Amino acid sequence: MTNIQSVHTLVESLEVGDDALAEISLILEMRRNFSISPYKDKCMKRRIAIRMRSCRCLDAATYCNLLRQSEQELDLLKKALTIHVSQFFRNPSMFEKLQTVVLPSLFKKILADCEKTNLRFWSLGCAGGEEAYSLGIILREFFAQQLLTTPTEIHASDIDEDILLAAALAEYNEDRLKDLPDSIRERYFISNGPRMRLSSQIREMVSFHQQNIMDVESFVPCQLVLCRNTLIYFTRPDQEKIIHGIAHILPTGGILVLGKSETLVGETRKLFTTVCPVERIYRRV
Questions:
Q1: Which of 1, 37, 188, 275 could hold 281 in an S-S bridge, CB 3.0 to 4.6 Å?
Q2: pLDDT tens digits for 9-29?
Q3: 87 located within any domain
Q4: If DSSP codes are grouped into helix, strand and coil, which group holds residue 228?
Q5: What is the pLDDT of residue 32?
Q6: Same-domain pairing of 54 and 106
Q7: What is the pTM of this model?
């Protein structure tokens, strides 16, 4: 085996132990005010190992030294630990259920209430904004009349400030649009070099802000929360804490949507009834 092959084999087999994870966690907290304690250790170790391989660090001690010396690697690691993967209308069947069942019931309820209020929707852990913008497209396409009489807000939050800036710009590679019908693509996107830019009429429907999902005291009341494919990275106690926080700001009849691999945990099961078990849609009781 050549020296290059030996190094490649070592790098591919890298592991991150508990002590190394604790040290890296401390560095991130001190230098970036970012805590990985709520996240699952296995997930964090896997992503740290990916960064170690990228940097050709052969052990955790070398990588920790690199983190102490390199601001750039600290930022790259933080971004890797909060990976953002999404696309427009991801899981189309869920958006169809929003269009045909959830949104009509929310508009009907708001109109029936004696005390009029805005409808507020929230994409929690919004990544590049595709989910929030997809909701905006549905509202514009199918609920234009309701929007004229019911003030409706779409808010989107994420912990990563850079990803939020990109989300607000709303320019995407073609792979993010693969589930879009041609009619929607033609109506709401324009070519901008190799990328596609979302039209201003949809961009202006969504407001973005930075937020740590663990800061449940900062959650603001709304009628619909999309929290998909985010809880899976957190420990069970913290999943329960987050869902309790969401339940607290949802009114009776408010809607929570989780990802296909997620479900209600612990005591939070008592706070919701199931609207659609397949799409993980729940109603606040």
A1: 275
A2: 444 457 888 999 999 999 998
A3: no
A4: coil
A5: 87
A6: no
A7: 0.81
